[in-house]
Design brief:
By secondary structure, the protein is an alpha+beta fold. It has 2 domains: 61 residues, no CATH class; 54 residues, Alpha-Beta Plaits. The chain is built from 5 helices and 6 strands, in the order αβαβαββαββα.
Length: 156
């Protein structure tokens, strides 16, 4: 318990164990103010049971690099710091791969030539509303998106 607030998390690494059934049942029978956060951003199902009226919707984005070749000196520091190979160089050609970027922002820190601009990539949608007296929030990962952690953080 934190102050007068009780926090209950229902989690399992395996699908089909009843996490959503238990979570929604607890939310429906709990006294006092309840906030239901469905952090299963790949397959959120809490809304099926609670049927919330979703009144808010917000795009969830991560910051990604856009190389400004007219400023780039091809030093390779951005490529070297990227652990996910989202930036690569072939001679005097530099390429970024937004779908590989984990938005660590390291490339922005090491570029001494201001040759990287901040761009964004949508990873999903954050939706919120109410199901009776229950405050409801869930995230929906964009189809094909491999990175759900930033969306989970947004839900929380």
């Amino acid at each position: 318990m934190i102050g007068d607030t009780m926090r209950i998390a229902v989690a399992s690494g395996k699908g089909g164990t009843g996490k959503t059934t238990v979570s929604t049942s607890l939310a429906l029978c709990a006294p006092g103010p309840v906030q239901f956060l469905d952090c299963d951003v790949e397959e959120p199902n809490g809304h099926i049971f609670l049927k919330p009226e979703l009144t808010e919707s917000e795009r969830c984005v991560v910051t990604i690099p856009r190389i400004l070749e007219d400023k780039c000196t091809y030093c390779g520091k951005c490529r070297d710091i990227c652990r996910f190979n989202a930036i690569t160089m072939f001679g005097r050609t530099i390429m970024s791969f937004p779908e590989l970027c984990h938005s660590c922002l390291g490339c922005f820190l090491v570029c001494e030539d201001d040759a990287i601009a901040k761009d964004e990539r949508e990873i999903g949608l954050l939706e919120a509303g109410k199901a009776g007296d229950i405050d409801f929030v869930h995230g929906r990962t964009r189809v094909g998106e491999a990175m759900g952690v930033p969306l989970i953080k947004a839900v929380k």
